[in-house]
Write a structure and sequence with these properties.
Elements (H helix, E strand, L loop, with lengths): L1 H13 L1 H20 L1 H9 L4 H6 L5 H5 L4 H6 L10 H21 L7 H29 L5 H30 L1 H8 L4 H10 L14 H16 L4 H10 L2 H7 L2 H7 L4 H45 L2 H9 L3 H28 L6 H11 L2 H29 L2 H13 L1 H4 L16
Helix pairs in contact: 2-3, 2-8, 2-9, 2-11, 3-15, 7-8, 7-10, 7-11, 8-19, 9-10, 9-16, 9-18, 13-21, 14-20, 16-18, 16-21, 17-18, 17-20
């Protein structure tokens, strides 16, 4: 009986759709690592000052601008490749662009030209954001509504593996063969999503839209996804929640490598405690998230995630106060990744369920971009200055306080019944339209 119970519990994770979500997630995670923690470490080791290093996080803003070209992925057919299907053809094209952009970043030298490095990082951001648009749409349309929770977890597993493996590989190769070789090796992480598209094929739930012809049709394809979303009941508050819920978490996460560098941690220590130990803690968080999601449902699971992700920033305030401590680093990274892994499952499942299958790419691009834009702007424009003025301890306490608005807003939306009314067709088994008003 117990053996059958385990088989039933594991079956959703072994379904074709869930495995596809896992493999496309690998390719989604690695561009983030290339222009995130990895580039931050590279710049810090090259002696670039903190304000310039944190300003590089503005390269992530490209991910927030992807809403402006996501409609192209939904409706523009690629010549020749388009015969493979809308999503598969775009996976191949976007993956190729990512490989080219990462190779370009490998060939620049920040000490010789910071301007060329900025341009290279932005190009990786553009290519990675486009890849994300396609990958998110492919994942959501491949999964059935009942699979959104498990599929989101598998996608997060893949994202973390891609990000952590690329980050660890880059650090290890950089210490032995230089940063150019490190980035060239990591470009191969774009391949899993491309191969998944070729093997699994077009998503079953993909809704074919009319190809864009004429200015009026193009304008309608741009504005239509946003207009449909804003017609839903409680859409304004849902969008406000998306904007503010992750400010503190984003502000904190993009500065961790600066803290580690200033506390004197070596590349090998970062690879072991941040990348490797954090990786396993993240996987544990995803597993716990799946269990709690099943037991408590979406709404209460998300609320718990918001609280945990906010409080986890305090662990880095404690690490900053303690100084160079491998045990302290492991504890802080463990807690943060446990909370992020758990939150990733339930929050991504909620955001995926908000999409209308007619506009999957455009609407998820809107949601995912809005989820981090405020935090990234603050990080790129003020994080370095705040750290210098306040110190690391007070800075991470501030990031914890910034999590409160999102927690309170989601609690209010739960009490007002807005969560269910604003869901899109991707989250509805009957395909019914979202509530109006």
């Amino acid at each position: 009986m117990r053996r059958n119970g385990w088989r039933e519990a594991l079956r959703p994770y072994l379904e074709k759709e869930s495995l596809a979500a896992f493999f496309v997630g690998i390719s989604s995670g690695f561009p983030y690592a290339m222009i995130g923690a990895t580039l931050t470490t590279r710049l810090a080791q090259d002696g670039i000052d903190k304000r310039t290093v944190t300003a590089f996080t503005l390269a992530f803003l490209v991910y927030n601008l992807k809403v402006f070209w996501a409609w192209i992925v939904d409706g523009v057919r690629i010549p020749l490749l388009g015969r493979l299907g809308q999503r598969v053809s775009w996976l191949l094209l976007a993956g190729t662009l990512v490989i080219a952009a990462v190779v370009n970043l490998a060939l620049v030298d920040p000490r010789a030209s910071i301007q060329a490095t900025v341009i290279a990082a932005v190009l990786v951001g553009i290519a990675g954001a486009t890849y994300d648009i396609v990958i998110d749409a492919y994942r959501i349309e491949t999964l059935q509504p009942r699979q959104l929770g498990v599929g989101s977890g598998m996608s997060q597993y893949g994202w973390r593996i891609g990000s952590a493996a690329a980050g660890a590989l880059a650090l290890l190769i950089a210490d032995r063969a230089g940063w150019s070789a490190a980035y060239l090796a990591c470009a191969a992480f774009a391949l899993p999503a491309m191969l998944t598209g070729l093997i699994v094929g077009e998503p079953v739930r993909h809704v074919v839209t009319i190809e864009k012809q004429g200015l009026a049709t193009v304008w309608g394809s741009i504005i239509g996804p946003f207009a449909e979303f804003m017609r839903r009941s409680g859409a304004v508050l849902v969008l406000l929640f998306i904007l503010v819920h992750k400010i503190g978490d984003t502000l904190a996460n993009l500065t961790f490598r600066l803290l580690f560098n200033d506390l004197g941690f070596s590349n090998d220590e970062i690879a072991v405690y941040d990348v490797a130990f954090g990786f396993w803690a993240y996987l544990a968080g995803i597993f716990i998230g799946g269990l709690i999601y099943t037991q408590l449902g979406l709404k209460r699971s998300v609320l718990i995630a918001l609280v945990l992700m906010g409080v986890s920033n305090l662990s880095f305030a404690l690490l900053a106060a303690a100084g160079h401590s491998n045990l302290g680093m492991a504890a802080a990274i463990g807690f943060e990744n446990l909370a992020s892994g758990y939150g990733g499952v339930v929050v991504v499942a909620y955001f995926s369920a908000l999409c209308n299958l007619q506009f999957t790419a455009a609407q998820y691009a809107l949601i995912s971009a809005a989820a981090s834009v405020v935090g990234r702007v603050l990080t790129g424009t003020t994080a370095g200055t705040l750290i210098e003025q306040m110190g690391y301890v007070n800075f991470y306490v501030l990031t914890t306080l910034l999590a409160l608005p999102g927690i309170l807003l989601f609690w209010f939306m739960m009490r007002a019944g807005m969560i269910d009314r604003a869901l899109g067709t991707a989250g509805r088994n009957d395909g019914a339209p979202s509530g109006g008003g």
